[in-house]
Specification:
With about 400 residues, this protein is of the alpha/beta class. The chain has 2 domains: about 5-180 and about 295-385, Zn peptidases (Aminopeptidase), CATH 3.40.630.10; about 180-290, 2-Layer Sandwich (Alpha-Beta Plaits). The chain has 11 helices and 16 strands. It has helices at about 5-10, 10-25, 30-45, 105-120, 140-145, 150, 205-225, 260-285, 300-315, 335-340, 370-385, and strands at about 50-55, 55-65, 70-75, 125-130, 160-165, 170-175, 175-180, 180-190, 195, 230-240, 245, 250-260, 285-290, 300, 320, 345-350. The strands form 4 sheets. The protein has an 8-stranded mixed sheet. The chain has a 4-stranded antiparallel sheet with strand order 10-12-8-13, covered by helices on one side. Strands 7-14 form a two-stranded antiparallel sheet. Strand 1 and strand 2 form a beta hairpin. Helix 4 (about 105-120) crosses helix 11. The longest helix has 22 residues, at about 260-285. The model has no long low-confidence stretch (mean pLDDT about 95).
């Protein structure tokens, strides 16, 4: 059996915790009930518990021996602001709140790993179990770092699991380098001169300017980015006007840019500004551009990715592991941790093509994946903090 036998023995217990968290989802920086459950379990199993990093975040630490080596394992705890349409018993009891991204499963699997490792202690050094708030847009990973996460809990490497619908159960996939994209938002506000639709020559029509900008933005990817680099520039809204016979005075355009390298991230931001500056001069209008950086790209360390997938092969078998998954244009704030400490995120199968996708109102984490996630974390620790690991 490739999974750790103890992970199967505690699967029912960990599943019950997962479903309880699923039924009581909490938004970013409001995960008080969830963090209370996590803290109580960690303390029960003999871990040192430190709370208050990133407001509702916490770290459980397990130590053995005198080795100075250490490893971090991370899970996220928050939910999404949406209603759940499932009808099973553990569906969300909080209106407008739902674990539609599987953070309940991530938290439960890391708790399961803490329980198993606290019993076995087959390692030398320190394991830091990082339970992070506010991944869904709140930057909880950065908040924990700003509160001294890696100063208080130094890590030689850090690892995380994210579930992935579309990947078969019992499979783990990843890749070295960019795994997920940076997610930035931008606003373009055009101020022209409105007027009567019958007399356009007396106006400076911002609608024409906006339409030109929307089309020009599409050349950023097609004409400025290497075709082999994944980049997306998407216009999310175009707000202007309220009447059939009035040319409005203002236009507001908003959208998102997704890039997998810091170079393309900077290039896209620069080109949006250049396109707008050029349009302002061409059409004689005022254009303001506001760029709002989001999460940086999630970039896996090559050495630690190879190590993690080697561990995954002992859990899932050689045929259950791939190292060439395509980068996702979604974003993850584990990226902040990877900027500070070498490490890797792996994607754990949540079911094949029949699985409901993330951020869907009928999504649910697959409890059959729990032993695989627990086993990956446990074996990662035992190998990384074992005598034979030299990296």
């Amino acid at each position: 059996m490739p999974v750790v036998p103890r992970s199967l023995e505690i699967q029912g217990e960990i599943t019950a915790i997962r479903r309880d968290i699923h039924a009581h989802p909490e938004l970013a920086y409001q995960e008080t009930r969830t963090s209370d459950i996590v803290a109580a379990k960690l303390a029960e199993w003999g871990l040192e518990v430190t709370r208050g990093l990133g407001k509702t975040g916490l770290v459980g630490t397990l130590r053995k021996g005198n080795s100075l080596r250490s490893i971090g394992l991370r899970a996220d705890m928050d939910c999404l602001p949406m209603d759940e349409t499932n009808d099973f018993e553990h569906r969300s009891q909080n209106p407008g709140r739902m674990h539609a991204c599987g953070h309940d499963g991530h938290t439960a699997m890391l708790l399961g790993a803490a329980k198993v490792l606290s019993e076995k202690r087959n390692f030398e050094g320190a394991v830091h179990f990082i339970f992070q708030p506010a991944e869904e847009g709140g930057g909880g990973g950065k908040a924990m770092i700003d509160d001294g996460l890696f100063e208080k809990f130094p890590c030689d490497a850090v690892f995380a699991i994210h579930n992935k619908p579309g990947v078969p159960l019992g499979h783990i996939v990843s890749r070295p380098g960019p795994l997920l994209a940076a997610a930035d938002r931008w606003d373009i506000r055009i101020t022209g001169k409105g007027g009567h639709a019958a007399h356009p020559h007396t106006t400076s029509d911002p609608m024409i300017v906006g339409a030109s900008i929307v089309m020009s933005l599409q050349t950023i990817v097609s004409r400025n980015i290497d075709p082999q680099d994944a980049t997306v520039v998407t216009v999310g809204f175009f707000k202007a006007g309220s009447a059939y016979n009035v040319i409005p005075g203002e236009v507001h355009i908003g959208g998102t840019t997704r890039t997998t390298t810091s170079e393309n991230r900077a290039l896209a931001q620069r080109r949006i500004k250049e396109i707008c500056d050029g349009a302002a001069q061409m059409y004689g209008v005022k254009i303001e551009v506001e760029h709002r950086p989001g999460y940086p790209p999630t970039i896996n360390n090559a050495e630690q990715t190879k190590f993690a997938l080697g561990i995954a092969a002992t859990v899932c078998g050689e045929n259950g592991v791939r190292d060439n998954v395509k980068p996702s244009m979604g974003a993850e704030d584990f990226s902040y941790m990877l900027e500070k400490v070498p490490g890797a995120m792996v994607m754990l199968g949540n079911g094949g093509t029949e699985a409901i996708n993330l951020h869907n109102s009928r999504y649910d984490f697959n409890d059959m994946a729990i032993p695989f996630g627990i086993s990956f974390f446990v074996k990662t620790v035992e190998s990384f903090l074992g005598e034979k690991h030299a990296g």
